[in-house]
Amino acid sequence: MKTRLPTLGHKKRGSAAPMAVIAVLAAMLIAGIACTGAPPRTPTTPTGVGSDTAALEPTATGLPIDGATWILESIDGQSPIADTHLTLTVDGPQFGGFDGCNSFGGRHESGQPIIKRYGTVSLPVYAMTAAGCPTPAILGQAKRYLAAMKDEAKARVVGDHLHILDGSGQVVLVFAREQPLPGQPVDLVGTSWRLVDNAGIYGEGDTTILFLNSWSATGTTVCRDYTVGYAASAGGIRSYYKGMSGSVEPCTQDAIHQEHQYVEDFGWADEYAIHQTDGAERLVVRTSRGKTLTFEPLPQSVGDIFQGQWRLISFLESRSDGSGMRWPDNTDVGVSENITAVFDAGSFEGSFGRASCAYRAVGPDGTPLVGADKTISIAAASVTENSCEDGVIVSPKQQRYLNALPTAERYTVFGERLVIITSDGGALVFQPE
Question: In the chain, which end has fewer C-beta atoms inside a 10 angstrom radius, N or C?
Fold first, then answer.
Protein backbone atom coordinates (compact mmCIF):
# COMPACT_ATOMS: atom_id res chain seq x y z
CA MET A 1 0.00 0.00 0.00
CA LYS A 2 1.09 3.57 -0.59
CA THR A 3 1.60 4.78 2.96
CA ARG A 4 0.38 8.28 3.73
CA LEU A 5 2.08 9.22 6.98
CA PRO A 6 3.27 12.61 8.21
CA THR A 7 5.61 14.53 5.96
CA LEU A 8 8.76 14.88 8.01
CA GLY A 9 11.74 17.15 8.12
CA HIS A 10 9.44 20.06 7.25
CA LYS A 11 8.76 22.62 9.93
CA LYS A 12 7.37 26.08 9.50
CA ARG A 13 9.86 28.72 10.56
CA GLY A 14 9.44 29.37 14.25
CA SER A 15 7.88 26.00 15.06
CA ALA A 16 9.46 23.76 17.65
CA ALA A 17 9.02 20.10 16.80
CA PRO A 18 11.40 18.14 19.08
CA MET A 19 13.93 16.09 17.16
CA ALA A 20 12.97 12.99 19.13
CA VAL A 21 9.41 13.30 17.77
CA ILE A 22 10.74 13.85 14.24
CA ALA A 23 12.88 10.70 14.52
CA VAL A 24 9.96 8.58 15.74
CA LEU A 25 7.65 9.85 13.00
CA ALA A 26 10.32 9.33 10.36
CA ALA A 27 10.86 5.76 11.49
CA MET A 28 7.10 5.16 11.13
CA LEU A 29 7.26 6.65 7.65
CA ILE A 30 10.06 4.42 6.40
CA ALA A 31 8.50 1.33 7.94
CA GLY A 32 5.19 2.12 6.28
CA ILE A 33 6.60 2.77 2.80
CA ALA A 34 9.12 -0.04 2.83
CA CYS A 35 7.09 -2.82 4.41
CA THR A 36 3.42 -2.39 3.73
CA GLY A 37 3.44 -1.97 -0.04
CA ALA A 38 1.26 0.55 -1.86
CA PRO A 39 -2.45 0.91 -2.52
CA PRO A 40 -3.84 0.41 -5.99
CA ARG A 41 -3.02 3.30 -8.32
CA THR A 42 -6.61 3.10 -9.62
CA PRO A 43 -9.18 3.56 -6.82
CA THR A 44 -11.56 0.68 -6.14
CA THR A 45 -14.98 1.36 -7.67
CA PRO A 46 -17.77 1.77 -5.06
CA THR A 47 -20.27 -1.07 -5.13
CA GLY A 48 -23.92 -0.10 -4.80
CA VAL A 49 -23.78 2.05 -1.68
CA GLY A 50 -26.56 4.64 -1.88
CA SER A 51 -27.25 7.86 0.01
CA ASP A 52 -29.93 6.18 2.12
CA THR A 53 -27.54 3.50 3.36
CA ALA A 54 -25.50 4.36 6.44
CA ALA A 55 -23.63 1.05 6.41
CA LEU A 56 -20.81 0.09 4.07
CA GLU A 57 -21.08 -3.11 2.11
CA PRO A 58 -17.74 -4.98 1.99
CA THR A 59 -16.45 -6.09 -1.40
CA ALA A 60 -14.15 -8.89 -2.51
CA THR A 61 -11.23 -6.45 -2.52
CA GLY A 62 -12.05 -4.66 0.72
CA LEU A 63 -14.06 -1.56 1.58
CA PRO A 64 -14.57 0.91 -1.28
CA ILE A 65 -13.00 3.67 0.83
CA ASP A 66 -9.63 1.91 0.89
CA GLY A 67 -6.87 2.80 -1.52
CA ALA A 68 -8.12 6.25 -2.54
CA THR A 69 -7.29 9.77 -1.45
CA TRP A 70 -10.31 11.82 -0.37
CA ILE A 71 -10.37 15.64 -0.62
CA LEU A 72 -12.58 17.51 1.84
CA GLU A 73 -15.38 19.47 0.13
CA SER A 74 -17.42 20.53 3.14
CA ILE A 75 -17.24 20.57 6.93
CA ASP A 76 -20.46 21.11 8.90
CA GLY A 77 -22.18 22.07 5.65
CA GLN A 78 -19.63 24.77 4.72
CA SER A 79 -16.76 24.81 2.25
CA PRO A 80 -13.25 24.66 3.76
CA ILE A 81 -11.45 27.95 4.26
CA ALA A 82 -9.98 29.23 0.98
CA ASP A 83 -6.53 27.88 0.04
CA THR A 84 -6.67 25.08 2.61
CA HIS A 85 -6.40 21.48 1.45
CA LEU A 86 -7.65 18.75 3.77
CA THR A 87 -7.31 15.08 2.86
CA LEU A 88 -7.94 11.58 4.17
CA THR A 89 -6.56 8.20 3.09
CA VAL A 90 -7.59 4.86 4.60
CA ASP A 91 -5.87 1.54 3.88
CA GLY A 92 -7.17 -1.23 6.13
CA PRO A 93 -5.69 -0.71 9.61
CA GLN A 94 -3.83 2.50 8.73
CA PHE A 95 -4.89 6.00 7.83
CA GLY A 96 -3.32 9.39 7.12
CA GLY A 97 -4.00 12.78 5.68
CA PHE A 98 -3.56 16.53 5.98
CA ASP A 99 -5.66 18.82 8.20
CA GLY A 100 -4.76 22.10 6.49
CA CYS A 101 -1.78 22.68 8.79
CA ASN A 102 -0.16 19.31 9.50
CA SER A 103 0.10 15.80 8.15
CA PHE A 104 -1.13 13.02 10.42
CA GLY A 105 -1.14 9.25 10.36
CA GLY A 106 -1.37 6.08 12.38
CA ARG A 107 -2.38 2.43 12.32
CA HIS A 108 -4.03 -0.21 14.48
CA GLU A 109 -1.19 -2.57 15.36
CA SER A 110 -3.76 -5.31 15.91
CA GLY A 111 -4.75 -5.13 12.24
CA GLN A 112 -8.26 -3.87 13.07
CA PRO A 113 -9.60 -1.80 10.14
CA ILE A 114 -10.11 1.95 10.46
CA ILE A 115 -13.59 1.58 8.93
CA LYS A 116 -15.39 -1.43 10.41
CA ARG A 117 -17.92 -3.64 8.63
CA TYR A 118 -20.93 -1.37 9.15
CA GLY A 119 -19.13 1.94 8.65
CA THR A 120 -18.07 2.66 12.24
CA VAL A 121 -14.92 4.80 12.28
CA SER A 122 -12.24 3.62 14.69
CA LEU A 123 -9.16 5.85 14.78
CA PRO A 124 -5.95 4.58 16.41
CA VAL A 125 -3.45 6.71 18.29
CA TYR A 126 -1.84 8.81 15.58
CA ALA A 127 1.19 11.06 15.08
CA MET A 128 1.27 14.55 13.60
CA THR A 129 3.85 16.97 12.30
CA ALA A 130 4.38 20.16 14.29
CA ALA A 131 3.96 23.03 11.84
CA GLY A 132 1.89 25.93 13.11
CA CYS A 133 -1.37 27.03 11.49
CA PRO A 134 -1.28 30.40 9.68
CA THR A 135 -4.45 31.74 11.37
CA PRO A 136 -6.65 30.89 14.37
CA ALA A 137 -9.53 30.14 11.97
CA ILE A 138 -7.49 27.51 10.11
CA LEU A 139 -6.38 26.03 13.43
CA GLY A 140 -10.00 25.79 14.52
CA GLN A 141 -10.96 24.12 11.24
CA ALA A 142 -8.16 21.55 11.67
CA LYS A 143 -9.38 20.68 15.17
CA ARG A 144 -13.00 20.31 13.99
CA TYR A 145 -11.88 18.15 11.08
CA LEU A 146 -10.14 15.52 13.18
CA ALA A 147 -12.76 15.68 15.93
CA ALA A 148 -15.48 14.85 13.40
CA MET A 149 -13.94 11.41 12.82
CA LYS A 150 -14.18 10.47 16.49
CA ASP A 151 -17.07 9.97 18.91
CA GLU A 152 -19.26 7.34 17.21
CA ALA A 153 -18.60 8.62 13.70
CA LYS A 154 -19.70 6.50 10.76
CA ALA A 155 -18.71 6.49 7.10
CA ARG A 156 -20.62 5.84 3.90
CA VAL A 157 -19.78 6.12 0.20
CA VAL A 158 -22.19 7.98 -2.09
CA GLY A 159 -21.01 7.71 -5.69
CA ASP A 160 -17.56 9.28 -5.81
CA HIS A 161 -18.06 10.98 -2.44
CA LEU A 162 -17.34 9.88 1.11
CA HIS A 163 -19.61 11.09 3.93
CA ILE A 164 -18.68 11.06 7.62
CA LEU A 165 -21.71 11.15 9.93
CA ASP A 166 -21.80 12.01 13.61
CA GLY A 167 -23.53 9.98 16.32
CA SER A 168 -26.91 11.55 15.50
CA GLY A 169 -26.66 10.62 11.81
CA GLN A 170 -25.87 14.15 10.58
CA VAL A 171 -23.35 14.49 7.75
CA VAL A 172 -20.40 16.50 9.13
CA LEU A 173 -17.71 15.85 6.49
CA VAL A 174 -18.06 15.38 2.74
CA PHE A 175 -15.09 14.26 0.62
CA ALA A 176 -14.58 13.88 -3.13
CA ARG A 177 -12.41 11.09 -4.49
CA GLU A 178 -9.10 12.45 -5.81
CA GLN A 179 -8.14 11.39 -9.33
CA PRO A 180 -4.86 9.43 -9.47
CA LEU A 181 -1.86 10.96 -11.18
CA PRO A 182 -1.39 9.87 -14.80
CA GLY A 183 1.62 7.72 -15.59
CA GLN A 184 3.65 5.21 -13.60
CA PRO A 185 5.70 5.47 -10.37
CA VAL A 186 9.01 4.22 -11.82
CA ASP A 187 12.31 4.09 -9.93
CA LEU A 188 13.74 7.59 -9.37
CA VAL A 189 17.32 6.63 -8.46
CA GLY A 190 19.85 8.09 -10.90
CA THR A 191 17.35 10.37 -12.65
CA SER A 192 17.75 14.16 -12.83
CA TRP A 193 15.07 16.75 -13.52
CA ARG A 194 14.43 20.47 -14.01
CA LEU A 195 11.33 22.19 -12.65
CA VAL A 196 8.88 23.35 -15.30
CA ASP A 197 6.77 26.12 -13.86
CA ASN A 198 4.25 27.85 -16.06
CA ALA A 199 3.18 30.20 -13.26
CA GLY A 200 6.69 31.62 -12.93
CA ILE A 201 6.73 31.65 -9.12
CA TYR A 202 10.16 30.03 -8.92
CA GLY A 203 11.94 32.63 -11.05
CA GLU A 204 14.04 32.34 -14.18
CA GLY A 205 16.97 30.34 -12.76
CA ASP A 206 16.98 26.56 -13.05
CA THR A 207 15.57 24.57 -10.15
CA THR A 208 16.86 21.01 -10.43
CA ILE A 209 16.90 17.70 -8.57
CA LEU A 210 19.10 14.58 -8.88
CA PHE A 211 18.03 11.42 -7.04
CA LEU A 212 21.37 10.05 -5.85
CA ASN A 213 20.12 6.84 -4.25
CA SER A 214 17.04 5.50 -2.49
CA TRP A 215 17.29 7.89 0.46
CA SER A 216 18.87 11.16 -0.70
CA ALA A 217 18.65 13.71 -3.50
CA THR A 218 20.44 16.94 -4.27
CA GLY A 219 19.74 19.87 -6.54
CA THR A 220 19.96 23.57 -7.23
CA THR A 221 17.57 26.47 -6.82
CA VAL A 222 17.79 30.00 -8.20
CA CYS A 223 19.79 30.84 -5.03
CA ARG A 224 21.56 27.86 -3.38
CA ASP A 225 22.07 24.10 -3.56
CA TYR A 226 19.99 21.79 -1.38
CA THR A 227 19.88 18.20 -0.13
CA VAL A 228 16.80 16.20 0.86
CA GLY A 229 16.26 12.89 2.56
CA TYR A 230 13.35 11.03 1.03
CA ALA A 231 11.58 7.69 0.82
CA ALA A 232 9.62 6.58 -2.25
CA SER A 233 7.77 3.41 -3.11
CA ALA A 234 4.98 2.52 -5.55
CA GLY A 235 3.93 6.13 -6.09
CA GLY A 236 4.18 7.37 -2.52
CA ILE A 237 6.99 9.81 -1.69
CA ARG A 238 7.97 11.62 1.50
CA SER A 239 10.71 14.13 2.27
CA TYR A 240 11.92 13.80 5.88
CA TYR A 241 15.01 16.04 5.83
CA LYS A 242 16.21 19.16 4.03
CA GLY A 243 19.54 20.98 4.15
CA MET A 244 20.82 24.02 2.28
CA SER A 245 24.36 24.57 1.00
CA GLY A 246 26.05 27.91 0.38
CA SER A 247 25.33 31.48 1.39
CA VAL A 248 22.25 33.60 0.65
CA GLU A 249 24.34 36.79 0.60
CA PRO A 250 24.66 36.98 -3.22
CA CYS A 251 20.92 36.30 -3.65
CA THR A 252 18.17 38.87 -4.08
CA GLN A 253 15.15 38.83 -1.79
CA ASP A 254 13.05 37.54 -4.69
CA ALA A 255 15.50 34.66 -5.23
CA ILE A 256 15.47 33.79 -1.51
CA HIS A 257 11.66 33.79 -1.52
CA GLN A 258 11.52 31.58 -4.64
CA GLU A 259 14.01 29.15 -3.12
CA HIS A 260 12.04 28.95 0.12
CA GLN A 261 8.78 28.39 -1.78
CA TYR A 262 10.18 25.46 -3.76
CA VAL A 263 11.90 23.75 -0.81
CA GLU A 264 8.75 24.27 1.28
CA ASP A 265 6.56 22.75 -1.45
CA PHE A 266 8.82 19.74 -2.04
CA GLY A 267 8.94 19.17 1.71
CA TRP A 268 5.24 18.28 1.56
CA ALA A 269 5.68 15.77 -1.32
CA ASP A 270 3.02 13.07 -1.15
CA GLU A 271 2.89 11.09 -4.42
CA TYR A 272 4.59 11.02 -7.81
CA ALA A 273 4.36 9.56 -11.30
CA ILE A 274 6.21 9.81 -14.61
CA HIS A 275 4.18 10.17 -17.80
CA GLN A 276 4.38 11.35 -21.39
CA THR A 277 3.01 14.76 -22.42
CA ASP A 278 3.10 15.64 -26.13
CA GLY A 279 5.86 13.07 -26.59
CA ALA A 280 7.96 14.46 -23.73
CA GLU A 281 8.57 12.79 -20.37
CA ARG A 282 7.42 14.56 -17.20
CA LEU A 283 7.85 13.86 -13.49
CA VAL A 284 4.82 15.06 -11.53
CA VAL A 285 4.96 15.40 -7.73
CA ARG A 286 1.72 16.14 -5.87
CA THR A 287 1.98 17.53 -2.33
CA SER A 288 -0.12 17.04 0.78
CA ARG A 289 -1.14 20.68 0.44
CA GLY A 290 -2.66 20.10 -2.99
CA LYS A 291 0.11 21.67 -5.07
CA THR A 292 1.62 19.99 -8.13
CA LEU A 293 5.30 20.25 -9.11
CA THR A 294 6.13 19.29 -12.69
CA PHE A 295 9.67 18.47 -13.89
CA GLU A 296 11.23 17.70 -17.27
CA PRO A 297 14.35 15.53 -17.81
CA LEU A 298 17.41 17.67 -17.23
CA PRO A 299 19.73 18.18 -20.20
CA GLN A 300 23.46 18.17 -19.48
CA SER A 301 24.02 21.86 -20.13
CA VAL A 302 27.67 21.82 -19.02
CA GLY A 303 28.43 18.64 -20.92
CA ASP A 304 31.14 16.09 -20.45
CA ILE A 305 33.19 15.57 -17.29
CA PHE A 306 36.33 16.23 -19.36
CA GLN A 307 35.33 19.78 -20.30
CA GLY A 308 37.17 22.34 -18.20
CA GLN A 309 38.06 22.63 -14.53
CA TRP A 310 35.75 21.83 -11.63
CA ARG A 311 35.76 23.14 -8.04
CA LEU A 312 34.48 21.09 -5.07
CA ILE A 313 31.62 22.88 -3.27
CA SER A 314 30.26 20.25 -0.85
CA PHE A 315 30.49 16.78 0.64
CA LEU A 316 27.27 14.77 0.85
CA GLU A 317 27.31 11.94 3.36
CA SER A 318 24.76 9.97 5.36
CA ARG A 319 24.38 9.15 9.02
CA SER A 320 22.24 6.52 10.71
CA ASP A 321 20.21 6.79 13.89
CA GLY A 322 18.99 4.16 16.31
CA SER A 323 16.01 3.32 14.10
CA GLY A 324 18.23 2.37 11.15
CA MET A 325 17.20 5.38 9.08
CA ARG A 326 19.76 7.11 6.87
CA TRP A 327 19.88 10.89 7.10
CA PRO A 328 21.74 12.96 4.46
CA ASP A 329 24.41 15.28 5.83
CA ASN A 330 25.98 17.99 3.67
CA THR A 331 29.17 19.95 4.43
CA ASP A 332 30.07 23.10 2.49
CA VAL A 333 33.56 23.48 1.06
CA GLY A 334 34.59 27.14 1.05
CA VAL A 335 36.36 28.96 -1.75
CA SER A 336 39.44 29.27 0.47
CA GLU A 337 39.91 25.47 0.34
CA ASN A 338 40.16 25.82 -3.47
CA ILE A 339 39.84 22.10 -4.24
CA THR A 340 39.87 21.79 -8.02
CA ALA A 341 39.85 18.90 -10.50
CA VAL A 342 40.61 18.41 -14.19
CA PHE A 343 39.80 14.99 -15.70
CA ASP A 344 41.11 12.85 -18.52
CA ALA A 345 40.42 9.20 -19.29
CA GLY A 346 43.35 7.73 -17.33
CA SER A 347 43.84 10.14 -14.44
CA PHE A 348 42.83 13.45 -13.00
CA GLU A 349 44.66 16.12 -11.13
CA GLY A 350 43.97 19.35 -9.31
CA SER A 351 45.11 21.74 -6.64
CA PHE A 352 44.44 22.78 -3.05
CA GLY A 353 44.30 26.12 -1.30
CA ARG A 354 45.88 29.45 -2.02
CA ALA A 355 49.34 27.86 -2.04
CA SER A 356 48.22 25.60 -4.91
CA CYS A 357 49.35 22.27 -3.54
CA ALA A 358 48.90 19.79 -6.37
CA TYR A 359 47.40 16.32 -6.16
CA ARG A 360 46.88 13.47 -8.57
CA ALA A 361 44.46 10.51 -8.71
CA VAL A 362 45.02 7.48 -10.94
CA GLY A 363 42.99 4.43 -11.98
CA PRO A 364 43.99 0.80 -11.50
CA ASP A 365 46.70 -0.53 -13.84
CA GLY A 366 45.32 -0.95 -17.32
CA THR A 367 41.89 0.41 -16.41
CA PRO A 368 40.65 3.87 -17.42
CA LEU A 369 39.86 6.05 -14.45
CA VAL A 370 36.67 7.33 -16.12
CA GLY A 371 34.63 4.69 -17.96
CA ALA A 372 32.34 5.17 -20.93
CA ASP A 373 29.37 4.12 -18.76
CA LYS A 374 30.00 6.98 -16.29
CA THR A 375 31.88 4.80 -13.84
CA ILE A 376 34.94 6.04 -11.95
CA SER A 377 37.63 3.72 -10.60
CA ILE A 378 40.41 5.31 -8.52
CA ALA A 379 43.28 3.24 -7.15
CA ALA A 380 45.00 6.04 -5.23
CA ALA A 381 44.97 9.80 -4.68
CA SER A 382 47.77 11.78 -3.08
CA VAL A 383 49.47 15.15 -2.92
CA THR A 384 52.18 15.55 -5.53
CA GLU A 385 55.61 15.49 -3.90
CA ASN A 386 57.20 18.91 -3.28
CA SER A 387 54.19 20.71 -4.77
CA CYS A 388 53.32 22.72 -1.63
CA GLU A 389 55.16 25.71 -0.27
CA ASP A 390 57.33 25.13 2.80
CA GLY A 391 55.27 24.89 5.99
CA VAL A 392 51.96 24.43 4.18
CA ILE A 393 49.96 21.42 5.35
CA VAL A 394 46.90 19.79 3.85
CA SER A 395 43.70 20.92 5.65
CA PRO A 396 41.20 18.45 7.19
CA LYS A 397 38.71 19.00 4.34
CA GLN A 398 41.40 18.56 1.72
CA GLN A 399 42.52 15.29 3.34
CA ARG A 400 38.87 14.21 3.61
CA TYR A 401 38.58 14.75 -0.12
CA LEU A 402 41.69 12.67 -0.86
CA ASN A 403 40.37 9.88 1.37
CA ALA A 404 37.01 9.91 -0.40
CA LEU A 405 38.35 9.64 -3.94
CA PRO A 406 39.27 5.90 -3.85
CA THR A 407 35.63 5.16 -2.88
CA ALA A 408 34.24 6.83 -6.05
CA GLU A 409 32.01 4.58 -8.17
CA ARG A 410 30.14 6.67 -10.73
CA TYR A 411 29.42 10.23 -11.77
CA THR A 412 26.75 12.34 -13.37
CA VAL A 413 26.73 15.84 -14.84
CA PHE A 414 23.42 17.64 -14.37
CA GLY A 415 22.80 21.31 -14.96
CA GLU A 416 25.94 23.07 -13.79
CA ARG A 417 26.97 20.39 -11.31
CA LEU A 418 29.26 17.38 -11.43
CA VAL A 419 28.41 14.77 -8.78
CA ILE A 420 30.78 11.90 -8.01
CA ILE A 421 28.92 9.19 -6.07
CA THR A 422 30.88 7.07 -3.61
CA SER A 423 30.46 3.47 -2.48
CA ASP A 424 29.09 4.47 0.94
CA GLY A 425 26.18 6.36 -0.61
CA GLY A 426 27.81 9.77 -0.27
CA ALA A 427 28.81 12.20 -3.00
CA LEU A 428 31.28 14.93 -3.96
CA VAL A 429 29.60 17.92 -5.60
CA PHE A 430 31.51 20.21 -8.00
CA GLN A 431 30.67 23.31 -9.99
CA PRO A 432 32.54 24.58 -13.08
CA GLU A 433 35.28 27.13 -12.55
Answer: C
